[in-house]
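Changelog-adjacent note: as of this version, every example in the card shows the full chain rather than a window. The one below runs 228 residues end to end.
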Amino acid sequence: MGHLTRRDLNASRERLRDQVAHALRAALISGELRPGVVYSAPALAEDFGISATPVREAMLDLAREGLVEPVRNKGFRVTEVDERDLDQYAEIRALIEVPTVGRLTRTADRADLEALRPVAEEIVRAAREHDLIGYLEADRRFHLTLLGLTGNDRLVETVGDLRKRSRLYGLTALDKRGDLIPSAEEHLELLDLMLAGDTKGAEKCMTKHLGHVRSLWARSKGPAGTAG
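Full-length structure tokens:
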């Protein structure tokens, strides 16, 4: 399994835990770890060539993120997200993020918006370089930092939780087809519209972007990049 190997894991326990968690996230994204399947810490530890303790600690970190759930005396099950769940998460995100983007277009400091450009460019660069972990991390920072300009911490937490629950599986197939690049470039389009003060255009772009993300997830399901 590509991501589940020892590679250059650091001997420091805390560092090792973080590295294992990173590798497990990568395995989830690539589809190596499958939704609904239960994985034991000792078995995963054997793949890494390390003890079970840092793997168990890393899996608990992922459980707090909603990526897996503990199964008593067995291990951790990769959480499943069905089409109905995704539709509902997408609807809630649209209800929150579209009008929020419109409001920020009217009220946000232009310097704060411009400060997001390097992050938007990082998203595009990660998509072009096939860096899936980097893509998702930069995408998370862009959206949550943008929402953070409202000053509403609870809003940011809510959307952050929705993002975790509706995260993409099977991105490898999408990456190979180049489907991630158009979605990545929408961040720059959104930013330009907001900086231009085009409220309706920014809201329309965010609506399109969220719909694009939802359709990408749907296309990632199937034999080539199945999510379950």
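Structural remarks: The chain has two domains: 13-78, 83-220.
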